[in-house]
Design goal:
With 115 residues, the protein is of the alpha/beta class. It is 28% helix and 25% strand. It contains 2 helices and 6 strands. The strands form 2 sheets. Strands 2-1-3-4 form a 4-stranded mixed β-sheet, covered by helices on one side. A hairpin with a 2-residue loop joins strand 5 and strand 6 (109-110). Helix 1 (19-31) packs antiparallel against helix 2.
Length: 115
């Protein structure tokens, strides 16, 4: 179950209602994983020591992260945030976390059980 968490100083009132769904679609397509498994969380109104709009993201998945794949993920996710929130791609950071399936609990067991 991939997870994209976005922390930003953009006010909640400026976050479009469709942004979570659009990011879910973009991220799942980039990962080539079903969107039904994708989880997106946006945490607005964060106090960040920056006068400009900013976003710090954590992108967690089980595989599908490599140097080239991460460049592609960065491009599409940052383009979506730039288009919808006006955040410059130089004011965003994504931390990619390739989580081993055995290290994630799900359904009373771990994801390793389902692979």
């Amino acid at each position: 179950m991939p997870i994209l968490k976005i922390e930003t100083n953009v006010p909640a009132s400026k976050i479009p209602k469709n942004l979570i769904h659009d990011l879910s679609r973009v991220a799942s397509q980039s990962l080539q994983k079903p969107e039904a498994h994708m989880m997106v969380q946006i945490v607005p109104d964060q106090n960040i020591n920056c006068d400009e709009t900013y976003a710090y993201m954590t992108f967690i998945s089980f595989g599908k992260f490599s140097v080239e794949e991460n460049k592609a993920h960065s491009k599409v996710i940052m383009e979506e945030l730039t288009n919808q929130l006006g955040i410059a791609n130089t004011r965003m950071i994504i931390r990619f976390v390739d989580l081993p399936a055995a290290d994630c609990g799900y359904g009373g067991t771990t994801l390793l059980t389902f692979l």
